[in-house]
Specification:
Blueprint: E1 5-9, H1 13-22, E2 27-32, H2 35-44, E3 47-51, H3 57-63, E4 69-72, H4 76-88, E5 93-95, H5 107-112, E6 116-118, H6 127-136, E7 140-152, H7 167-175, E8 178-182, E9 185-189, E10 196-202, E11 205-213, H8 220-223, E12 230-237, H9 241-251, E13 268-280, E14 283-294, H10 303-320, E15 328-330, H11 332-337, H12 341-351, E16 356-360
Parallel strand pairs: 1-2, 1-4, 2-3, 4-5, 5-6, 6-15, 7-12
Antiparallel strand pairs: 7-13, 8-9, 10-11, 11-12, 13-14, 14-16
Helix pairs in contact: 1-10, 3-4, 10-12
Length: 362
């Protein structure tokens, strides 16, 4: 049987995980300008490589010419224009670039070209949105909140933190105003605001983290408007991180992505908690999901890359085999609401040892 062709744009930490995952079942080509990253990827996995300047949109068009599906895993500042190029090229796409622009500005273009364009299909945004879409189709959700963070054991780096994804995108989280929904009204607050301490139990050990507002609801603000009256997302870090970032912002101290660049072999983890409260058939329901993922030392893939990349790969499989097809921009909540998709994606995550545990309170 002829294997379908997938082109993954970007061979960074997450792009590497996606290419490795999909190479098990598809003919995968990884495109990037970084020769070392491509060489490392092809030495470990059955992945073709193509040296491509992803900042050159004409080169991007050439790289994806023969693809059955494109995965866009470029940095956020490149994401919107890259996604537009993919859609104009007539290719179905799953995107995790998490750009600041509104993906729905490309909805008409995607519909006109009959393209399935799934966006924000990572760990968060991604997994919480899948759940929001899935449960909003079954019950009346009153409150929806999630907290997520990627952290290193041992509290390494500036203010006890090193980025587990693109450092420039991390900094964007700390500067972009945070939006959430309260009583059906959109609230805008500064990033890093409304801090609180949150307790987790990991392997029998108590872990206290600092949670603060960031702009992580993204498309949920639009897709769940009028359906979920209270929605909020917060980022998790070790206590003291907010004070450090605010000092950088207030004093104008120099900051570059390289100052926060962790090594590829540093032990780290991704943690997330999702709370859902509402009513189903008149009965009150209150439950939560927790996720804890660790670094895969053998494969050399970080927890954030695993949880983000394997979520994306699960969506890619749904698009490739026709489980999910929709002409236009598809936010992850729409994918979660589509028959069979949430189960398929979560089963794929479990196979990769990314497990979400449900805890019912009512």
């Amino acid at each position: 049987m002829v294997r379908k062709k997938v082109v993954v744009l970007g061979a960074g930490r997450v792009g590497k995980a996606i290419a490795a995952d999909l190479s098990e079942d598809f003919e995968v080509t990884s495109a990037d300008i970084n020769r070392d990253a491509l060489a490392l990827l092809s030495s470990r996995y059955r992945v073709n490589t193509r040296i491509t300047d992803l900042g050159n949109l004409e080169a991007v068009g050439d790289a994806i010419r023969d693809a059955d599906l494109v995965v866009c895993a470029v940095p956020g500042h490149m994401g919107f224009n890259t996604l537009k190029t993919i859609i104009e090229s007539g290719k179905d796409v799953v995107d995790i670039s998490f750009f600041a622009e509104d993906a729905f500005d490309l909805d008409e273009l995607a519909q006109r070209n009959n393209i399935t364009a799934a966006v924000d299909c990572g760990v968060a945004p991604g997994i919480p949105d899948f759940l929001a879409g899935y449960f909003a189709a079954q019950m009346q959700i009153k409150d929806f909140e999630f907290m997520v963070g990627g952290l290193h054991f041992g509290r390494t780096g500036p203010a006890q933190y090193l980025p587990t994804f693109s450092p420039s995108d991390v900094w964007e989280e700390y500067t972009r105003p945070a939006r959430y929904v309260r009583d059906g009204k959109l609230i805008t607050m500064p990033a890093l605001s409304e801090p609180e301490l949150v307790e987790f139990e990991i392997g029998g050990h108590r872990l206290v983290l600092e949670a603060f507002n960031t702009d992580g609801l993204r498309s949920l603000i639009r897709t769940m408007d009028g359906r979920i009256p209270n929605m909020k997302e917060k980022t998790l870090r070790y206590p003291g991180h907010i004070a450090y970032i605010r000092e950088l912002q207030e004093t104008g101290k120099p900051w570059t992505p390289d100052t926060w660049k962790p090594g590829d072999d540093e032990d780290e983890f991704t943690i997330m908690r999702i709370h859902i409260h509402g009513f189903e058939s008149g009965l009150e329901k209150k439950f939560s999901y927790t996720l804890f993922a660790g670094y895969d030392k053998e494969a050399g893939i970080s927890s954030m890359a695993r949880s983000t990349g394997f979520s994306c790969a699960g969506v890619a499989r749904c698009v490739l085999d026709g489980t999910y097809k929709h002409a236009g921009i598809s936010p992850p909540s729409a994918i979660g609401a589509a028959p069979g998709c949430l189960e398929r994606i979560f089963a794929h995550l479990r196979e990769r040892k990314i497990v979400l545990e449900r805890h019912d309170e009512v």
